[in-house]
Amino acid sequence: MTDSVVVQTPPPLIPIDPSGADRHGEAARMRELGPVIRAVLPGDVQTWVVTDYALLADLAADPRVGRDWRNWDALRRGEVPEDWPLLSMIRLNNAMARDGAEHRRLRKPLTRTFTRARVERLRPRIEEIVNTMLDDLPNHVGPDGVVDVRKHYAYPFPMQVICELIGVPEAWWPRFRELIDTVIRADTTAEEYLTTQQERHELWQRLFAMRRAEPADDLTSAMIAVNGEDDDTLTDDELEDTLWMLVAAGHETSISLIVNATRALLTHPDQLALVRDGDAETWSKVIEETLRWDAPVGNFPARFPTEDITVGGVTIPKGDAILAPWSGVNRDPAKYGPDADRFDITRPNQKHLAFGGGPHVCVGPALARLEAAVALPSLFGRFPDLRLAVDSAELTAVPSIFSNSVTSLPVYLGPSRD
Ligand code: HEM
Who has the most CB within 10 Å: 98, 196, 203, 339? Predict the structure, then answer.
């Protein structure tokens, strides 16, 4: 009698398109290949992908799976180039990249800051910023009568909110935006990546020196002041990476939420009619359905199992990387039924994974929802005849594996209701 050997057939390999051109189509194709597949990231780096909503939710909460990149075998073995641009979203010294007690220590100051009640206190300032930007929006209309509502509204607004909160000097905002765009873009060169890392380090060190010399009423000063008071102490590197993560996480994603919701409403007049007749609750449904149907975070690296785990019948070895396709699983028909691809604000099941899950779930939902809850009704209220100036299908996707949105949103404003 011979011993039988069970050979696990390797799951199919699919390249993740760095242009982001067909993010939802790509997610559907990955889902068809199976609940757990393998993919290739730009730069020829391999990863697992869990394409099934329920399995990904369980994986995010699984204590055997963390986000600490020091557990990534391929990186330890030197198989991932030191200057691989996607490392800027992985090799961090902050809550996003630590597990267990270390993660709790780094996350605690953030959860304290971004509670619903504290964020709600920002509402008057957020309304003020939005109103000023809407006053200014008609000044950006071109000779063809078109204005890019992403560039002149959705893009500068969340950056201003988060930078004011953190205390980043106004003169630095444009450069910060450029640095974040470099991190998000999939075509960032190794040289650009290294320069970005160096420059952002210098800017934060300058800010820390300024606030140590003269504290202000901002988050940077507050975090410096409490540092060293108890076991929650953050090193300078951790403080820098934490504040940088807040600027990056609180900027790009919120832009995409506002852009994706505006685009969805302008291309679904039946849904827009529901909001026009509705109230704040209806706007909240628009925001949740946008987060589900067109989630701002497309594919997010990376999680690393600290022991071999079996997911959906497939064994993922300890130390491998796993990619979370958050926007993809939000359209999983097994979760939402056969009309998962439809934008429908009346959908009874609005639960989604746009903010991730488990201990690493996003700390910013209250701020993101408040920004959208002010920005969207204000835009549509001020310009009731707002309409797209191009065919929605012609819009260019943000060239990124993380970001799920478009690079511009040209519209005709129509008359303003002052
Ligand atoms: C629509 C807007 C936003 C979306 C869609 C979003 C989405 C996400 C996602 C998918 C993750 C990864 C979660 C995981 O791995 O399970 C995340 C993490 C995170 N987000 Fe957000 N985010 C948004 C806005 C914000 C804002 C406004 C902030 C703060 C200013 C923020 C701060 C963070 C932080 C600190 C983490 C890391 C948490 C940890 O690892 O413990 N996000 N976000």
Answer: 98
